[in-house]
Amino acid sequence: MTVARTPVRPVESIDWQSIPSPAFVLDEGRLRRNLELIKRVSEESGASVIVAFKGFATWSSFDLVRQYVPGATASSLNEALLASREMRGEVHVYAPAYSDEDFPRLLELAHHITFNSFSQWERFRPQVQAARAAGREVGVAIRVNPEYAEVGTALYNPSMPFSRLGVTRAEFREDLLDGVDGLHFHTLCENDSDTLERVLEVFEEKFGEFLPRMRWVNFGGGHLMTREGYDIDRLVRIVRNFREKWDVDVILEPGSAFGWQTGWLVSSVLDVIRNEKDIAILDVSVSAHMPDVLEMPYRPNILGAGEAGERARTYLLGGTTCLSGDVVGEYSFDAPLRPGDRVVFDDMIHYTMVKTTFFNGVKHPDIGILGEDGRYRVVREFGYEDFRNKLS
Ligand SMILES: Cc1ncc(COP(=O)(O)O)c(C=O)c1O
User: Which pLDDT score is estimated for 5?
Assistant: First the structure.
């Protein structure tokens, strides 16, 4: 499948100084380009591709997203409500465990529910059966753990030793499959489709015997199909073959692939100080606004900046909280940094936006959308009330 990707606005043409700082800026054109590709994959492969809210939940963009995908997968009651009220499509739910309090409400909202264990399935089965008897069509899946993944970082590896995510083959309960019509696995993380191929081999070897009883299989997320160089043809082939071989529907639920390279975190310099090195303090926080930089950890790209020493002036960039480690790293720039200058972090939409906190009460970045008409609009500002409402 050749995917000619729609051209997008070059970053050089964006007037960053005109964007109030700090702000997460979602570029509608870049999002649409991802959505177009995702829809093509769905059409060519026959898979249903839904968006995982844990990775992308910018609901101001859902009018656009809804044109390309049929629904969302939620990992909590709050996300399920967002899926139902804002996306208004299919609602799929999976969480490592459901509480007695949340489950009845989840059941009302969900079209598909995946259980992480047979004990949870047994606990909530009577409610599912009652809903079905009353005419609700609700799909039920068990998440399995194939115990095979190609994920370097343990923090993001669902198949790491002693993982709590999914039922291993040794714990699988064939005797409890009545009423279960799907299997779910999620062991990819920003992987290409060759990894999926290898994961599927293991999955089929371990759980293939149960597939004739299933109507659908959810291949989870981690399919970074919108990354340049991702082998889309192979993904399409894998899904098609699997659907034909087992006569099941296939669901893919990526998160990152939706928000991948769709926007930025715009920050500005507040002060420049010196402690043996030049240090610039920004109006954002790594800890509060880019937590994955510290958790993963990884070095984010900054537009127009290079490695230390590569360009004329090198700075250690840090954030506004009192955390000593609220530091991004060393970057070099062509010109000296001055208060008010914009420092723009690239690719800060997927996961980053949903994981922010109000640590230290620091100003939370606005959420803004750069429209396809070239206009920038702030869709959300955060103030004292937001900070206060999170506490008590
Ligand atoms: C069960 C499940 N589905 C989907 C996803 C989305 O994965 P990604 O954003 O890497 O595509 C995740 C991510 O953690 C997940 O745990």
Answer: 83
